[in-house]
Write a structure and sequence with these properties.
Blueprint (H helix, E strand, L loop, with lengths): L23 H23 L3 H17 L3 H20 L6 H11 L1
Helix pairs in contact: 1-2, 1-3, 1-4, 2-3, 3-4
Length: 107
């Protein structure tokens, strides 16, 4: 005995649209991360503030481990003031883009 074929059911349910993934946390961590690396590179290029450079390296490693930016933000604030002083002494020593990137990362 052959089974009667049943018509295929139409899918009348509406699939909900997925909300876009939030990327703010990732982008802000990248900003802090890259800004600190840029500040570190600038301090190394100018060969100034060896203590601050080692502090940035330590805080950067700590930030990458636990994603707590408090110590890194404090050291970036110090680095920003040092780099502003270096720019005041020699205008070509530090780029304006670096200073604005640091200020954006600190916000």
């Amino acid at each position: 005995m052959a089974k009667a074929s049943t018509p295929a059911k139409k899918n009348t349910s509406v699939t909900p649209k997925k909300a876009p993934a939030k990327k703010k946390a990732a982008s802000s961590s990248i900003k802090i991360d890259t800004a600190s690396e840029q500040a570190l590179a600038a301090l190394e290029h100018l060969n100034i503030e060896a203590g601050l450079r080692s502090e940035i390296q330590w805080c950067l490693g700590s930030y990458r481990h636990d994603q707590n930016p408090s110590g890194l933000l404090e050291t970036l604030t110090k680095a920003l003031s040092v780099l502003k002083e270096a720019k005041a002494k020699n205008a070509k020593a530090v780029s304006a883009k670096l200073l604005t990137d640091l200020q954006k990362a600190l916000k």
